[in-house]
């Protein structure tokens, strides 16, 4: 079984990048107003970087993110700059959770948290249907 | 139910006994009238007496019962009944300090693999009851003893920090002498005069403190590791450690998820390793390390592990970092070592700091080079092995394949270009430690990771 990040994932990442970028730009602009106008170019750089990142990063992240489950192990590949491949053997899984933030619910995404004895692994931004499918498969495995 | 040993009362009221110091301090340092000193002292003693009485009533009301495990009843305001079944005990630890030896009592801690961060049950009981609780089910096998010389080497290098302090002490002392000589001779300003008068004794005092700290660390480690013995008793390992505070620990072998060999650079000079285990519910107390062999050479280690953990799965590290990866690993420590040229260029007292800086950078560089040459990752149908360096020590971890909870392959942009990767392994442990082996060839590592998941 293969799973991919849903269309909503792009929107969720864009929302987060935009929110963080706007906050950082506003903070630097406020500092520029309070201290020196020399900080204004930095605020401009922050703003430009936010716009660029909001357009460029989500598509790349969603394009690279994929999860698979073959009954033996959960495998996931993610990351744009630093590529990460995750392997969780099925017999190590102790519990799993399906969770979502308000932004994820708004755009139809879910995060699967796989818990094992040594910690937890996060599979974020799966589409709602695919997250349910993976949860069902993991539930079947437990049974 | 049997009442806990009176030592329980002593350890409970120990903190309140400090209140009795208050009247003494007040009599010495307070310059007020005698009546107010006496009244205040009566109040302090009454408070200490009330708290002691509370502890005494608590002790009288508490009890324990050895019945297919341990049942403890304790508390006065909040009553608690703790039940730990024998089959659920992951480790049992009995402690005997000199005072306990004189009083014929033992402190017993029982840990299960539950979520509590501390021992599930701690109780003071008579020596006889403690022996009854820990009596062996299986016949005693060959024992593994620690030898004096390896333990001395271990104690001398109990931590890299301790060795660092020891090397720093002469440097500080020398810096103090140079400051005293140069500054007072050259400038007659008030500030410099103060510096020349105050700094040398200060640096001397710090140097003495560092040496004292090392001595304390040496004595503490030696007292812990001397007289160390371990044996396999049926399905559990019995570890005896400590010179003054003797601890008997019984560890359920079925709960061991990893065996870790640790080596600092100093210990590497003597070819010594420290072996610790990771087991659910074992040695949870703060600062406690589940050591099963404190210091042994490779050959002794093999025999000892055959005795303590016969049939424990192990495999060779099949994936090794390529030689060209060494440059990448050595870059950061080389940069740090090269940084020592700056204080060296400044001259004067900074030369001493340059020497210390260089020694620290060099130490890290040597660890990185040895770690890079020894690093590796291996997996077969039964076992997984990882070898890596972290901080200032070298680690080798052996774990059964089923104990692996997560394997992560991480590829940084420069690793993608060189066809290498970092493999991270996580297994069950009390501290959630991550074991990372950097610069492994990607294809070979991926093949081994697939083997971990598929077999």
Question: Explain this structure to me?
Answer:
The complex is a heterodimer of chains A (143) and B (455). Chain A has 143 residues and is α+β, with helices and mostly antiparallel strands. Chain A has two domains: 9-61; 67-142, PH-domain like (Roll), CATH 2.30.29. Helices cover 51% and strands 31% of the residues of chain A. Chain A contains four helices and seven strands, in the order βααββββαββα. In chain A, α1 (7-34) packs antiparallel against α2. Chain B is flat. The relative contact order of chain B is 0.09. In chain B, β1 and β2 (69-74) form a beta hairpin. Chain B starts with 6 loop residues before the first helix and ends with a helix. Chain B is 47% helix and 28% strand. Chain B has helices spanning 7-17, 21-29, 34-61, 98-103, 127-134, 148-156, 160-186, 190-225, 265-269, 298-308, 325-338, 341-346, 350-374, 413-418, 442-454; strands at residues 63-66, 69-74, 80-85, 91-96, 105-111, 121-126, 140-145, 229-233, 236-241, 246-252, 256-264, 272-279, 291-297, 376-379, 383-390, 393-400, 404-411, 420-427, 434-441. The chains are: A alpha+beta (143), B alpha+beta (455). Chains A and B meet through β4 of A and β17 and α15 of B. β4 of chain A pairs antiparallel with β17 (404-411) of chain B, so a sheet runs across the interface.
Summary keywords:
A: about 140 residues, alpha+beta, 4-stranded antiparallel beta sheet, 3-stranded antiparallel beta sheet, 4 helices, B: about 450 residues, flat
Which structural category fits the helices and strands of chain A? alpha+beta
Helix content of chain B: 40-55%
Q: Label the CATH architecture of the largest domain in chain A.
A: Roll
* Strands in their spatial order, largest beta sheet of chain B: 6-5-4-10-9-8-7
Termini separation of chain A comes to 18 Å
Weakly predicted, low-confidence segments of chain A: none
How many structurally independent domains of chain A? 2
Give me the Rg of chain B, rounded.
Answer: 28 Å
Strand content of chain A: 25-35%
Q: How many beta-strand segments of chain B?
A: 19
| Tally of contiguous helical segments of chain A | 4
Radius of gyration of chain A: 19 Å
Query: Overall mean pLDDT score of chain A?
Result: 87
Q: What's the overall geometry of chain A?
A: elongated
Largest sheet properties of chain A: 4 strands, antiparallel
Q: Which of globular, elongated, flat, extended, rod-shaped describes the shape of chain B?
A: flat
Oligomer: heterodimer
Catalogue the unreliable spans of chain B.
Answer: none
In DSSP terms, counting alpha (H) and pi (I) runs of 4 or more, how many helices of chain B?
15
Helix fraction of chain A, binned, reads 40-55%
Biggest chain contact: A-B, 20 and 25 residues
């Amino acid at each position: 079984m293969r799973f991919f990040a849903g269309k909503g994932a792009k929107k969720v990442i864009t929302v987060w990048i935009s929110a963080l970028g706007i906050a950082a730009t506003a903070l630097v602009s406020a500092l520029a107003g309070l201290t020196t106008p020399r900080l204004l170019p930095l605020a401009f750089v922050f703003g430009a970087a936010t716009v660029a990142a909001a357009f460029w990063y989500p598509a790349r992240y969603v394009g690279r993110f994929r999860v698979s489950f073959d009954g033996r192990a959960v495998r996931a590949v993610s990351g744009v700059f630093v590529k990460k491949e995750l392997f969780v053997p099925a017999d190590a899984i102790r519990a799993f959770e399906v969770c979502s933030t308000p932004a994820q619910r708004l755009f139809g995404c879910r995060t699967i948290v796989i818990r094992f004895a040594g910690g937890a692994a996060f599979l974020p931004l799966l589409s709602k249907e695919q997250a349910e499918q993976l949860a069902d498969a993991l539930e079947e495995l437990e049974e | 139910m049997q009442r806990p040993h009176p030592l329980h009362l002593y350890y409970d009221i120990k903190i309140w006994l400090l209140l009795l110091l208050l009247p003494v301090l007040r009599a010495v340092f307070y310059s007020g009238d005698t009546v107010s000193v006496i009244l205040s002292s009566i109040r302090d003693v009454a408070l200490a007496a009330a708290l002691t009485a509370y502890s005494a009533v608590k002790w009288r009301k508490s009890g324990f019962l050895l019945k297919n495990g341990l049942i403890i009843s304790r508390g006065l305001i909040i009553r608690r009944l703790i039940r730990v079944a024998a089959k659920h005990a992951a480790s049992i630890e009995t402690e005997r300090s000199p005072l306990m030896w004189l009083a014929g009592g033992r402190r017993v801690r029982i840990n299960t693999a539950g979520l509590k961060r501390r021992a599930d049950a701690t109780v003071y009981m008579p020596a006889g009851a403690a022996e009854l609780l820990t009596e062996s089910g299986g016949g005693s096998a060959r024992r593994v003893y620690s030898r004096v010389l390896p333990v001395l080497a271990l104690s001398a290098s109990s931590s890299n920090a301790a060795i660092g302090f020891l090397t720093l002490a002469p440097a500080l002392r020398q810096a103090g002498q140079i400051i005293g000589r140069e500054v007072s001779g050259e400038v007659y300003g008030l500030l410099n005069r103060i510096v020349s008068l105050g700094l040398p004794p200060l640096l001397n005092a710090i140097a003495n403190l560092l040496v004292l700290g090392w001595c304390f660390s040496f004595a503490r480690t030696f007292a812990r590791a001397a007289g160390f013995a371990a044996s396999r008793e049926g399905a559990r390992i019995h570890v005896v450690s400590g010179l003054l505070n003797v601890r008997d620990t019984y560890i359920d072998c079925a709960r061991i998820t990893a065996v870790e060999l640790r080596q600092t650079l100093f210990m590497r000079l003597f070819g010594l390793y420290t072996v610790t285990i990771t087991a659910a519910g074992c040695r949870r107390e703060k600062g406690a390390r589940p050591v099963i062999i404190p210091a042994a050479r490779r050959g002794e280690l093999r025999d000892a592990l055959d005795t303590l953990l016969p049939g424990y799965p192990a495999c060779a590290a099949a994936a090794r970092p390529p030689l060209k990866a060494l440059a990448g690993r050595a870059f950061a420590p080389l940069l740090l070592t090269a940084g020592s040229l700056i204080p060296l260029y400044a001259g004067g007292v900074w030369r001493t700091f340059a020497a210390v800086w260089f020694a620290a950078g060099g130490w890290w560089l040597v660890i990185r080079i040895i770690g890079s040459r020894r690093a590796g990752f291996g997996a077969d149908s039964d076992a997984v092995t990882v070898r890596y360096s972290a901080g200032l020590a070298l680690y080798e971890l052996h774990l059964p394949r089923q104990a692996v909870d997560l394997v992560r392959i991480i590829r940084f942009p420069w690793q993608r270009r060189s066809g290498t990767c970092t493999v991270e392994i996580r297994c069950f442990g009390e501290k959630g430690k991550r074991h990372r082996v950097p610069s492994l060839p990607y294809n070979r590592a991926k093949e081994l990771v697939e083997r971990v998941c598929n077999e």
